[in-house]
């Protein structure tokens, strides 16, 4: 497989958010694979590079945008030394999602010059840290399309729905005192933990997969550094994921969601929300969704529809009324020590993506 040496070179690049040179290196490596003869628009936002590749001198409204991210979450040095184990290619980013992005680039190179409809390849380097400086930045700069295929891993299934995302900060205030004289103080940490308990009572920790709103306690801090002092302040950060049908979040402003959480907490605790990232959803009978399903089935896969609990860059298109799905290779271990891509899905993915794009008129 000529694909494998290039894939291993890409996987060896430590393209994490704190390594700007490697983010650019990963981007340039894939652009080199696309080759000459295309217009390459380069973007940069807050140190994160991205690119948009298409045919012609001027950017059109695209029929389909192939979206891939080349950044990865941090890992140990050995995770950037790709290795084979049978049909598994093991490395950081193999499943999420460098292999899918590389296939997208090669399919785009083969089809875009003669496609009867305008196609784009969108390569970004910040999805793992929120996507605001890659996909969201390009969309804000006027990139538009009818349909977007995001190459996140799916095992050739079609993800038509993903949850929305909210980051919530809970701030508790109290009164400092010497810890030997507790009755003279008001421990903000105690107040905060009662607030967290109240929130988790309303949104219990999921012990099995469930399509409902979940709240994860991510961090608790206080500015107090002394062991013999009652803390006068404490802060907790919550990660909230919600489906479209939860009306406490969908369609609500940041201030409304903050008020919702403040109401769950005891006096002395205030919630703050900076933004509400909406969920993403595409109707199951969308013509492009059906065409992708057919293309997957022709390769022996079910092409079944999936819902994902995690947020993806699809939400930035959804906010603009652009339909987007996730469709990528298979694998497992995302963000884990043994993350791998299933190599048996690479060529079927290539053929399915090719069949889908060539069916467009």
Which descriptors would you attach to this protein?
alpha+beta; Aminopeptidase; Alpha-Beta Plaits; 19 strands; 4-stranded antiparallel beta sheet
Describe the structure.
This protein is of the alpha+beta class and 361 residues long. It has 2 domains: 3-162 and 279-358, Zn peptidases (Aminopeptidase, 3-Layer(aba) Sandwich), CATH 3.40.630; 164-277, 2-Layer Sandwich (Alpha-Beta Plaits). 29% of the residues lie in helices and 28% in strands. The chain contains 9 helices and 19 strands. The chain has a 6-stranded mixed β-sheet. It has a 4-stranded antiparallel β-sheet with strand order 4-5-19-18. The chain has a 4-stranded antiparallel β-sheet with strand order 11-13-9-14. Strand 1 and strand 2 (48-54) form a beta hairpin. Helix 2 (20-34) runs parallel beside helix 3 and helix 3 packs across helix 9. It is elongated, with a radius of gyration of 23 Å.
